[in-house]
Amino acid sequence: MTVAQPAADPHLIQLLTPEGERLHHPDYDVDLTDEEYRSLYRDLVLVRRIDVEATALQRQGELGIWAALLGQEAAQVGSGRALRPQDFAFPTYREHGVAWCRDVDPLKLLGLFRGATNGDWDPEETRFALYTIVIGSQTLHATGYAMGVTKDGAVGSGDVLKDEAVIAYFGDGASSQGDVNEAFVWASVYNAPIVFFCQNNQWGISTPAATQSRIPLYKRAEGFGFPGVRVDGNDVLATYAVTRQALDSARTGQGPTLIEAFTYRMGAHTTSDDPTRYRLSSELEAWKLKDPLERMKAFLFKQQVADASFIEAVEGEADALASRIRKGCLEMPDPSPMVMFDQVYEEMTPLLRTQAEEFATYHAGFAQGGAH
Amino acid sequence: MTVAQPAADPHLIQLLTPEGERLHHPDYDVDLTDEEYRSLYRDLVLVRRIDVEATALQRQGELGIWAALLGQEAAQVGSGRALRPQDFAFPTYREHGVAWCRDVDPLKLLGLFRGATNGDWDPEETRFALYTIVIGSQTLHATGYAMGVTKDGAVGSGDVLKDEAVIAYFGDGASSQGDVNEAFVWASVYNAPIVFFCQNNQWGISTPAATQSRIPLYKRAEGFGFPGVRVDGNDVLATYAVTRQALDSARTGQGPTLIEAFTYRMGAHTTSDDPTRYRLSSELEAWKLKDPLERMKAFLFKQQVADASFIEAVEGEADALASRIRKGCLEMPDPSPMVMFDQVYEEMTPLLRTQAEEFATYHAGFAQGGAH
Amino acid sequence: MVQLTMAKALNEGLRAAMERDPKVILMGEDIGKLGGVFRVTDGLQKDFGEDRVFDTPLAESGIVGTAIGLAMRGYRPVCEIQFDGFVFPAYDQIVSQLAKMHARSRGRVKMPIVIRIPFGGGIGAVEHHSESPEAYFAHTAGLKVMACSNPIDAHFMIQQAIASNDPVIFLEPKRRYWEKADVDPTAMPDPLEQARVVRSGTDVTLIAYGPMVKTCLDAAAAAEEDGRSLEVVDLRSLSPLDFQTVFESVRRTRRAVVVHEASSFVGLGAEISARLSEELYYEMEAPVLRVTGYDAPYPPSRVEEEFLPDLDRVLHIVDKSLEY
Amino acid sequence: MVQLTMAKALNEGLRAAMERDPKVILMGEDIGKLGGVFRVTDGLQKDFGEDRVFDTPLAESGIVGTAIGLAMRGYRPVCEIQFDGFVFPAYDQIVSQLAKMHARSRGRVKMPIVIRIPFGGGIGAVEHHSESPEAYFAHTAGLKVMACSNPIDAHFMIQQAIASNDPVIFLEPKRRYWEKADVDPTAMPDPLEQARVVRSGTDVTLIAYGPMVKTCLDAAAAAEEDGRSLEVVDLRSLSPLDFQTVFESVRRTRRAVVVHEASSFVGLGAEISARLSEELYYEMEAPVLRVTGYDAPYPPSRVEEEFLPDLDRVLHIVDKSLEY
Ligand SMILES: Cc1ncc(C[n+]2csc(CCOP(=O)(O)OP(=O)(O)O)c2C)c(N)n1
Ligand SMILES: Cc1ncc(C[n+]2csc(CCOP(=O)(O)OP(=O)(O)O)c2C)c(N)n1
Ligand SMILES: [Mg+2]
Ligand SMILES: [Mg+2]
Question: Is A269 a catalytic residue?
Answer without folding.
Answer: yes
